[in-house]
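lol ok so funny story. i was supposed to be doing the assay writeup but got distracted and ended up predicting the structure for this chain instead. priorities right. anyway since i did it might as well share w the group, maybe its usefull for someone
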Amino acid sequence: MSAFVHRHLPWDSNQLGVSTGMLELVDETAATAAALREVIPADERLTALKVPASAPQLVTALVRDGAQLIDVEHTFTFVGPAPATSHAEVRCLNTIDPGPLLDLAPEMGFSRFYRDPNIRPETAEALWRTSILNHCEGFADRLSVAFMNGQPVGLVACRDDEQARALFMVGLLPHGRGRGLGTAMIGALVADAPDRHFTVEALASNQAATALYTRSGFRLAKSHYVLHLWQEV
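and the output, tada:
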């Protein structure tokens, strides 16, 4: 059995214009740079990989073999108490006309797409605009939206399963920051499904996100190194 499981990412491939995949590490003891190369398709241009923080030696070996270390990704889990939910300018919705929320795309700088110098900033921005559009139009299971003067200025999307709710795409336009809207949006989603287990992820370099999630009742649960491996095809 291989140390890695590969899956193709068709949406990412379409947005980036190159064949893209993701590797999942399933056996840390058997993981080597050579084992990784064996499972990457020959025609795949970009492969993403998350390595547990417990395996820094593997990261060193992969970087020596040509992989690029993007950042460390932290996963936070909600432990409470729940943030205040009485903020009048925040609502939970199933869909919304994205309108001004598309301008969140260039604000998503702390993502693996923006942080990879092999991906042009305009390509990363276009990817995020499409993702925001899709999630606002129903791809997300639930949205929390912040408003100012009747116009949306902030967004949190989530994906649900039977017991868990994963938050992602957390963003506020610059003129909506510093008003407690980020905490209020998260609090609204917690109140919307109080019996679920909540998680959210952020890159370690995104200190503002870490502070927001800590204020909102989340605590660090685990960390992974995020790597990109490019190959000529």
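Strands lie at 4-8, 20-25, 46-52, 68-78, 90-93, 142-148, 151-160, 164-172, 197-203, 218-230. The CA atoms of residues 202 and 209 lie 7 Å apart.
back to the writeup now i swear
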